[in-house]
Amino acid sequence: MIESVNNWLNGLSDTQSLLLFTSIKAIGAFSVMMFMVAYTVVLERRLCAWIQDRIGPNRVGPFGLLQPAADGIKAFFKEEMTPAHVRKIFFTLAPMLALIPAILNLAVIPFGSTLGKQPMVLADLNVGILYTFGIVSLGVYSIVLAGYAANSKYPFLGGIRSTAQLISYEIAMGMSVIPIFLYVGNLNLSSVITAQTGTQLGVLPNWFALQNPMTFLAFCIFLVSAFAETNRTPFDLPEAEQELAGGYNVEYSAIKFAMFFMGEYANMILVSAMMVTLFFGGWTLPWFGLDQPATTPIGGVLHIGIFLGKVFLFLVMFVWIRWMWPRFRYDQLMDLGWRRFIPVALANILVTAVWLWWRSAQ
Amino acid sequence: MIIKRKPLNLAERLYLPAIIGGFKVTLRHLLKKKVTMQYPEEKWVVPEGYRGAPYLVKDQEGNTKCVSCQLCEFVCPPKAIKITPPGPAGQLADRANAEKMPKEFEINMLRCIFCGFCQEVCPEEAIFLQKDYSLTGTSRAEMIYNKEKLLALGGVHAGVQKWKHKADEAKEQESFPVKA
Amino acid sequence: MSAAPATEVKPAPPAIEKIKVKVDGREVEVPKLTPDWQGKLAPTTMLQACDIAKKDVPHYCYHPKLPVSGNCRMCLVEFGTPALGPDRKPVMNPDGTPKIAKSPRPAIGCATPISPGMEIYTSTPGVKQMREGVLESLLINHPLDCPICDQAGECKLQEYSVDYGQSASRFVEAKVHKPKAVDLGPRIMLDAERCILCTRCIRFTKDVAGDDALGIVNRGSYNTISTFPGLPFDNNYTLNTVDICPVGALTSKDFRFQMRVWFLKETKSVCTSCATGCNVLISSREEKVYRYTPRDNDAVNASWMCDAGRLNYKWIQREDRLKAVLVRGQKSTWTNALSEIAGKLKQAQVGSVAIIASARQSNEELWLLAKLKATFGAISDSIERTGDADKLLVSADKNPNTNGARLTGICFSEMGINLPKIADGIAKGKIKALIVFGEEVTKHGISAELLGKLDTLIVSDILPNATTAKAHYVLPGCAHAEKRGSFTNMKGRVQKFMQAVQPPGEARAEWDFLHDLVYNVTSKNGFLTIEGLFNEMAKDVPAFNGLTWAGLGDAGVTVKI
After folding, report:
1. What CATH number labels C326-558?
2. Disulfide engineering: A294 pairs with which of A59, A73, A299, C25, CB 3.0-4.6 Å?
3. SS3 state of residue C233
4. Cβ within 8 Å, pair C152-B69
């Protein structure tokens, strides 16, 4: 049985097998992503409840684990209202746009080494990071469109705030990672991971977050910008409930609202994955030879597990910070973006470049 | 008065003390015993003096205490109470001397705000806010409680039976030499 | 308002001498003589002087329209008069003001005449103490019946208890119990326990109604109001005793346990049961009329009204009221019906239209009908209603607005004179269209067969009858309690009435749709409000010249008839 499958696989042409395996990987990665979106919501609700001395959702299924299913069913079957005053096409388009960029970006993230002969990345682009930023900047359209199409005050204000915020922090974010690529020497994300293998001082991982002050600074800027890009507290101004009654998604209901929600969490997962890849060695661990591509299927699965584990830790951090901190004021947010991060990121590029030149000149 | 803002020092401007402080507080609460009550299984001990749903009560002899004076209807802020007085040909009160009782007494529990004014104003101690807080129904009509339902839910409140006392007093005086 | 009815033109009464008295330190000028309950001039009392000085003096037994009996003692006040020396000259204070000799004992305000220079004290600690004492004494045997007492809310005993009562009773013995729920007459229920024996009811029936039916029997604590054994308290004015009873001893059987008075909205209106036009208050709650009570108007009904008129309100709430506009038996709308009617009437030849209006309609409505009449050269009349009269209030004419119908030109001094002519005209086919307002004409000489001959029969009424059954157009109208307007009573007093409740269904006030109809027919615009309509009518009708809606006030104005 297994043999016949193997034979059939070996019989395929290169193109056919690429098509087949990429499809399987894409479906697999997408499913895992959606599963994680669902359970990040549960994580958020449970963690928030614990921080607030509550229990959180614990009724649906064992330990409330079927809560996302219940929420999903509810979102699908709720009455969907489209207010009379909205611009219908944009109104419908906006929630779709919320989810799509995050899913597209999944393509270039190396979420494991190899499984069998297959590299665990959908598309090992040599311009991976450019692709990522290109797609990420599409994310702003969902919020802008939602705010504009709703044709009412609060969403509009939320949309405007969001545009300004996302554009500002995209610059800081993009500049912050340039030093990393100066080190790595190309834009391929798999190369970034390779550059982070091994240890320093014997035990510490050779991750960019810990490698030297310049890359650490890059990580700090990237981290904060990531919060701003995903509209998470302390930068959740577009949906500031107290001021905007929910912001850009006020006029949405049922599944359309749920798609914004899912989009937010998908973005969170994506940014976490990016940070893991760029600064925390991706699927590698510097010990027990786990920083080399796997040779056995168990090793391959283990690498995927390591990657997901790191992403999970970042998600916990995202959630925790939301229930720990108050929101920034809008002028503080803009001040931080334009007057602190962008100059610091520029200086960081310069210093890194000079240092690299000096090192190579030695 | 102008309050001078103290300029933040470097550590504060990096938000580091705030981050650590926030982390400490949230971590402490994360590990604390939870206060949530698992509601339908665990139930709350309703304290004395709680203002739940208002119901009509009967006296110790099982008679309606309400005499349809309509003060509660008057005082009710959300106008949840509607009383139909007996009228001239209506049923007499089931207690001698009290002369009248309501033909119908309705409380719209959807309107009721459980303020307790009705209980406070009642001259007959006939209506009390009791401990029921979970009132449910599947229609608006179902949430309008009528006299029968209110009396059934209200139970007995043994108190001063002033009409009975009056009737007894009057009876004693019947043997008095001068008659009306 | 002056007390003298304006219909009889009398020589101006001689000027009444004014004297100065002081009430609680404030000097007021009061007439030396004031009309008493019968309208005869009598020396002004301290209570009336306090009234002029706007100082409230609590009282139970005193009523301005009843003889003074002075038994409740609630109006006790302290007073003083200028002191006279041995030489019969006023003694002066060192500062030149007259020295006041304060009376060592108080006097009842309702029965003590004033004298020049008198000083009355209504708010001294002594007076307060006396009021508290009187009230406590009255409350000794008064039962705590307020929750079941119909008077609660308009009870003098309750009101004064708030002012002068104590929170707890000092009386430890058993209260005296007297008969409760005594059937005194067909409309009156007596609760002897609640009675404070002020004798207002006795004085009213004896002196005003002229039926000496009530009295006090038994002695001491067992005093009670009673009728003669076996004789019920039954005359046409019994319910006034309920109004004047300061407590809940006498209650109306009709209103018994119907509604608490504090819920009732009071609307100023006029009774429609006869041509007297007694001023009434309509008490209503949530679009339901509960009772009529008389409203003071010395020019019409003083403080009284008859039982028949008072209880004649139940038809307003009848279930079979006309509620829908009907065109040839089918439901229609006001706009459709009125434009159709206007179209038909416009084509009518001069002399082919007849109008039978009702003298139960308001002046404004009759005037609008008169305008229609003038437009078509129509023949018009109204229908007379007569009955028994009495010496006090009830008039033989049972239409509330006979004079209105005459003054607006709907009918002539002899009402009903045109009815045979109309019947004849219909029979001969000369009259093709008939407009009937609020009358059942089949009972007045125009049979259903004759009505069947008509091309167009337009009927507006409140309740269904044989005429509405025959009508091509049925326009549901309003009872007087559901609209505004004015009546002219038998003495020519124009009085307005206000709206107490909403009309049922689609019913509209007659003046409202008549206004539309007249506009449709004559294309002349007018006022959309009753105020404007009345003022326009007052300019048009000679007898009403100079009147305005606002100028009518609550008491009305008498015109020459």
Report:
1. 3.40.50.740
2. A299
3. coil
4. yes
